[in-house]
Amino acid sequence: MSAIMINGKILAAELNAAVTKKAHCLEVDHGITCCLAVILVGEDSASQIYVRNKSKQAIKAGIKPIDFKLPEGISELELISVINDLNRDANVHGILVQLPLPKQINSDNIQRFIDPNKDVDGFHPLNVGYLNTGRRNEGFIPCTPLGCITMLKQSLPDMRGKNAVIIGRSNIVGKPMSALLLQEDCTVTIAHSKSEALQAICKTADILVAAVGQPEIVRGSWIKPGATIIDVGINRLTKKNGQTSLVGDVAFEEAKHVARAITPVPGGVGPMTIVCLLANTVSAASLANNLPAPDWL
Fold it and tell me: How far apart are CA 213 and CA 250, in angstroms?
């Protein structure tokens, strides 16, 4: 037995085509140019690469990117002032503050100052509340969980009654993922670093979402035969010869012989995340102009 590969590149290309088409329609039919503002604070190299990739993909999709590169030493009040200006700008539809932020800035505070109607990352408390009360169509879903649930719905259209286990309880992935799976009528367990008998918990999963940030922690022996696995982890390992490789939180070579379907790393969840950000931006532009938002799910 060898698992079906859930190809994030193909699914991301399909969603990107739909996003591009909708952005084009807004431009041609309504004179609306979708606009995404991305704020990068400091010189973190990984963040710089990520922001560049976002901007390139936005342009290809017909979305205007505006990048703000702010100094490492900026104060929290100065950053909030930039956000407030963007909140007031009717031509800006989405605002994203790239994480991590410097130590002098409280990330949770910053998220609260973004207009929830422009919070395309889905981290504002109002959007979190919408998602967790079953009103996900009224707000924005965080991009990585949105990508994960999209992939699951493609691979496993009927999730009703399935046992779903999420490893990781972050506000970015684990918690919003649990809300999305509950809305699909799954029985959901959130496991984490303090969970006892983690292997036994994973073994119960018809759906396993690994988002803990530990390379290959989930072994093939942890997986229920026929399970569907979404591997959110992306970890860089250095080999003895000095070369590096990317691996997920799941031991892929072991898991693929047990699971029914699995996302690879790289090429799984990663490509979906940026496209879901663009989808949220197009939705924000639609709603800001009293037009119905697309149902990407």
Answer: 10
Question: Is 98 part of the annotated catalytic residue set?
Answer: yes
pLDDT tens for residues 205-250? 999 999 999 999 999 999 999 999 999 999 988 877 878 889 999 9
DSSP 3-state assignment of 283?
Answer: helix
Cα 88 → chain centroid = 26
Q: Residue 29 catalytic?
A: no
Question: Residue 59 corresponds to which tokens in the numbers above?
Answer: 């342009």
Distance CA 16, CA 276 (A): 8
How many Cβ atoms are within 10 Å of 109's Cβ, its own excluded? 12
Catalytic residue among 22, 57, 64, 98: 98
d(CA 127, CA 136): 8
Q: What six digits make up the tokens of 276? A: 């879901």
What Rg value do the Cα atoms of the chain yield, rounded? 19
- Choose the catalytic residue: 115, 121, 206, 249: 121
Kindly write down the DSSP assignment for every residue of 45-86, as one continuous string.
Answer: HHHHHHHHHHHHHHHHTT-EEEEEEE-TT--HHHHHHHHHHH
Query: To which residue do tokens 């329609």 refer?
Result: 25
pLDDT digit string (tens) for 200-216? 999 999 999 999 999 99
Strand-strand pairing, 244-247 and 207-210: unpaired
Annotated catalytic residue 121: yes
